[in-house]
Design a protein that fits this description.
With 204 residues, the chain is of the alpha+beta class. It has helices at 29-37, 77-84, 121-135, 161-169, 183-194; strands spanning 9-14, 43-52, 58-63, 67-70, 73-76, 90-100, 104-113, 144-147. Helix content is 26%, strand content 27%. The strands form 3 sheets. A 3-stranded antiparallel sheet has the order 1-2-3. Strands 6-7-8 form a 3-stranded mixed sheet, with helices on both faces. A two-stranded antiparallel sheet has the order 4-5. β2 and β3 (58-63) form a beta hairpin. α4 (161-169) crosses α5. The mean pLDDT is 91.
Length: 204
Amino acid sequence: KELPAGKKGALCLKLPLPPACLMGIWENDEKYRKGYLDHFKGYYLTGDTGYIDKDGYVYVLGRMDGIINVAGHRLSTGEMEEIISKHPDIAECAVIGVNDDLKGEVPMGFIVLKQGIERDHRGIVDGAIALIRQEIGAVASFKLACVVDALPKTRSGKILRKSLKELADGVECKIPATIEDASVLDHCKEIIATLGYPKIKKNK
């Protein structure tokens, strides 16, 4: 079902694909079919979310696995990152979904400041929260955010959002062999604790 201009959804490519595109998964045609072709008949699922504007330009918002479910509302963490990055004092950021007993998931933001910024961290965090509220609305429930020295990344520059989520949810965090600096995760764990995470469930 094609969506109207500006409406967010799954980005798909109409079949057949051009030559040299992904033709299958090595020795696992069934996984390829189920993962990419069965979701939307006649289309290849890219795994990205986005929208197409009225002029036909395609905007990629992020991976579909970057969609979190907040009280029944499907929200893109990639879109939240894009909005937070508009803050003049913020160099980069990452947003993850953390488990919440009431809403299922809530977003948590990690903010890296631009060099030389010495403003009060609370004011910058409040500014980021206000930006999300202004552009997405209160439905985003974006209230958890913190300033960190750096984001955990692989040597190729990919942010380790899964590792951050594992730390916040209190599950075993498997540190990838490709991590650039493992000490960054230790720092993030300390900062996450200041937000009251991971939450310890009391035995009834």
